[in-house]
Each structure stands twice: as structure tokens, then as C-alpha cells.
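During the second year of the project, the team shifted from modelling isolated chains to modelling whole assemblies. The rationale, set out in the original proposal, was that interfaces cannot be judged from single-chain predictions alone. As a representative example for this report, we include one of the complexes processed in the last quarter. Its constituent sequences, exactly as entered into the pipeline, are reproduced here:
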Amino acid sequence: MTVAWHRAEQRVAMPANGHTLPSMQRYEAHLRATIDWLLLSIEQGKGGSSAHYSPLRGWAAPYPETSGYIIPTLLEAAHHLHDPGLETHAEKLGEWLLALQHGDGWWPGGLLTNGAAVRPSVFNTAQILEGMVALARRTEDVRWHQAAASAAAWLASGVDAAGLWRQGNYRPGFNPSYYAQVAWPMLQAWQLLNHGQSREAAVRVLERVVALRTAQDTIADWGFEAGRPAFTHTIAYTLRGLIESALILNAWDAFAAPCMPAVEKMLRASELRNGRLPGAYHRDWHPVDWYSCLTGNVQIAVCLLRMEQRHPDLRVVNGAAKLVDFACAKQNLEQGRKAKRGAVAGSSPVWGRYMCMRYPNWAAKYHADALMALRDRLARELSVS
Amino acid sequence: MSGILLIAGYDRAPHAIAVAEGMRRAGCSVDQIIIAYPLTIARARAILRRHGAAAVLRYLRGERSEQVRSPLRAYIEAQGIVDISLSAWARRFGIPCTRVGDINGERAVRCIQHQRPQLTLYTGGGILRRPVIEAAGRRILNAHSGPLPVIRGMNACEWSLLLGEPLSVTLHLVDEGVDTGAIIAKRRMAVRQGDTVEMLRQKCIVAGIQLMVEHAARAVAGELSLAKEADAASQRQSFVMAPALRELLAQRLPELIERQGRIG
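Output from the structure prediction step:
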């Protein structure tokens, strides 16, 4: 979720007629708890956001990648919750990340266990780039522009003619389809900096991803490993990257339309399963159903709402609401252990395969994004009445 | 092929009784009734959630609730229908009545195959699968409370209002999809300020009863061909409304009703 689309396209003030819905108030309570948990993760991460909390092992080391994309979430939440202090937290995260950026423009992969950047990462750099772009748009501070420019240049220079990166991959030699979620921040950087190379490289990446669409309307290699079932988390990365990129490039038919059958499939599954998507899917859509990936659920909710923005249909909002409601039902808002209040588990049940027994900061981030997008959409509907 | 089969979702379904009685008065009485009642935990839970425990208890005791003045109840009373259940109605007129747990189960399919009905009137009981549809010769009528093909699936009345589609009842043939079969007839509903969603739902049910009886009688008399092409199933299916959307509908209802008046 970029600040740009929320600011310019999505966000509406709460309806002037004073109308609201009980569900919107409920969503606000969940949003507040989720953001408070994210702030706790930053406190525990000593500058960055701790990657996850585990009831067994406590708080993990800070995670640069997710700290980066938590920035636009905090900036947006500042508006939703009327809490300008969240902007300060976002800036502090940005400053923490600036100190980690390599001179060549990249950020490291993995958790910052030893306090030092070790290995460049394409995906993680792109997610942090999103945070830098969001800060640059918000504050006009030259530091964010410079960091974004440097990262965008590094990403663009690594893409070959086939739309592949040879270095900086999570698994050496494997360019997953969810790199569509890398192309999107590159395009944000292009918008901000008018950096033509970023656009050209991102388009090559997107063309490669779209070409991987299968006869079953899945997209090959959209999981962490080739030939393995893909978590809905990485499926959502892929779909979101394609949708957002298509919107930025005004190229819906080229990049978003090819993934619409998959988005519709997710919409239908969310309805038929009352908001509980299977945790993962095989290439032929055979589900891995014994757990649900909560992160993926709420990411898909955002994908649905973004698609619906292009083709309005409240039935799509309905599917998104069910996904969000399911995650809300699994979130603990009660008093109790502070580290679990407002946290969102990786899986439901919590011992599911995705982030087993852990509460990742990115689950909270995407839950907050989905809550805000849904509130915006409902507010828009109320404001026209 | 012989006669008319009526399939109902539960024994005390007032609209099913009204269809049976309507057909009798039209001079083409149903010849066989199948009552499918898959009482599962999920279904019991859904009923409790929707109506509340007190209403369910009142219903089980045979008491009439606040629904006495509802459009459906008013219609039933205006028709002089006194039977409390379909099985009671069937006994009164000597119509064979079979109960099955699953409308798509073997027993139901055998029963339909044995009768080889000329026409089947469907008034609820779950999504019909191919064996049942084939056994009934693909001549199954269903009244849907929404304008097909645009609004198909669950909560059709609610979605018609919220999406600004003309509130309508559509009579259609059942095929393997959800409300995707050929359209036989459509009736636009009158909507007035002060109508609640529940009232509008019931008005649709009443219109569905009338539409089904009228067209089934014509089909039996050979005045209506059921050999129609199915409509495209490309429209997005509607599902049960999430709480937020239901609240939105309730909040906007007066304006949505006004909008219905402006739809051409």
C-alpha cells in the first residue's frame, strides 16, 4: 500500500453526514490494537521493527525488509487514527534503515541478528524502497530521495534483458514471480524520481511474470520454492505487484488482466470459506487446507479492494470484509500478555505451517493495511448516500 | 413422463405449501412431493443465528410470531391456506410425500427417476447436482429473488438494493450452475418507502410463488416452451452479506429504495 494511492485516490474523510457503521468502529479498534503492537515491535527491535514475537522464544531481531514497508502503514495510520505521532515513528524507522543502506544502494536480506548488513537482497531492498518513497512523498526530505534513488538505481542495474536478477535472490538462481512486488516499488521510484531505467527494468520484470501464467490461471513460481505449494502470502505479493504496477503504468490489460482469474478465484474461495483461505495452493489450485495463512488472507483482501477500485462492485468488498473479519476474529484484543495483544499470527491455527507459533510484524502490517483500505471503501460508500 | 414433482427445503415452508396449493387451484395439482431436510449442525447454527433461539422455540411450538403481519403471512392468509406443513397439506389431498436427508442423495434421485416428472417445481433444499437435474429431465423451475442474470446467488434481494439493480423475481430453469439456467420470466417488484429488507424479501417470495404457479400451469398445458438456451454464467455470484455490508444496506435503505423508483 503506497501513501500515494491512499492519499490521491482512496482516502475519503469520514462521511460528513456523521453516519458510520458499527463494523467501522470495530475495525478502528482492531486497527488501533494492531498499530500499538507494531509500535511495541519497534520498541523491542531497538530501532527497527522486531520480525516476530514467539510465545516460546520471545521477540526476534529487527527485520529491515518489513521495517521498510511498515513505514507507509504508519504514515497512513496517522491519518486514520488521528495520531500524528505515528509519522514520527515512521521517520525513525526510516532513519534506522538509512544507516543500514549499503553504499551501492542495496539493503541486506534477512533479520539483523548481528547488527550488520551482510548480503544484498533484491526483494528486501524493494520493500524498503517503498518505505523511502513514502517518506519522500510525505516530507520532501532530501535524505529519503537520495536513499530511494540509490536503491532504485541498484535494482534497475541488476535486471537483465529477460527481466531476471542474477544476484541478490533469496534462493540463488531463482527469480520468483512475486518479484512483481519488486517491480511495483521500482515504479513508485520512477514516479517520484523520473528515473526511466527503473520503469524499463520493472516492465521487463512484469512481462516475465505475466508470461509465467499457467493454463490453470496460477502463475508459476509464485512461491518461495519452485514446484512447491505457494503460501497465499506470496500469491498475494504476486497479485498485488501486478495490480499496482498496472495501475501506475495505466496498463491494466497488459499486467493486471492476466491475473484477474486468480483474483476471482480468491474472491470465490473467501466467500465459500467465510474468509478463511487455505494456507497454500499447489500449481493446479489444489488447496493446502489444514491451516490458513492469516497474512495472506488480509493481503488478498487488499488485492480485492484494489481491483474493486478499478471495477467497482460491492460484492468484491464483501469478500474482502470476510477475509478481514476472519483475521479480526483471530486477533487478541483482550487484556493479557502485552506481546500478544493486537498481534496477528502467521497461521490459523497458530501451529500452521506458515510462521508456525509466531506473530510476524508483516502480518500486523497487512492487517492494518486491509483494515484501513476497507474503512476507506466503506466510508466512501457512506459519503455518497 | 408423468405429473408434477415439488421439492421443498423443509416441511413447514409456507411458500412451498402456497405453490402446492396454487397448482391445485390452477387445475394441475402436484403428484409427488420430496422434502429434503439436511439438518446439519451448520444449518441449525445458521437458523439460530438468523432467527434467535426464542423465535426458533416459538416456531417449534407452532406459535406465530411478529411475522403474522408479514407480506408472506398476509398472502398465505388471503389464500385461505390453513395447513401448517407441507406433509399435512399432502395428507389432506392424498399426495405421496417422501422425506430425504439429502436432495442429491441416491434415494432422492431414485424417487425422481421413478416418477419421471413432466415438470419439477423447486422451492428449496440445497444446490441441485447433475444426477437430480438429469433425473428430472432438466425441467426444474426455480423462482429467484433477484434480476437474473445480473444478481445470482445468495441474498439476491439485498444485493439488488445495494447494487442499484431493479428488485425483481426471476423464474428460471435449474442447471448445474448457481442461478445460471435459462430465464423463463421476470417480474419487477414495487418498492415503497418504509419497506424493510425483510418485507422486501417476503414480497419477492410471494411474487415467486405467483410466477411459478402461473408459468408452471402454462407449461403443463403446453402453452409455454421450456426449451430455452441457458443464459451466460459469466456474472459474478453473490454470497451472504458480511456484517459490514449488511449494516451499510440498513443505513442506506431509504436512499436505495428511492433509487429503485428511479430505475427505468
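The beta strands of chain B are 4-8, 32-36, 97-100, 119-123, 140-144, 152-153, 168-173, 183-188, 237-238. The mean pLDDT of chain B is 90.
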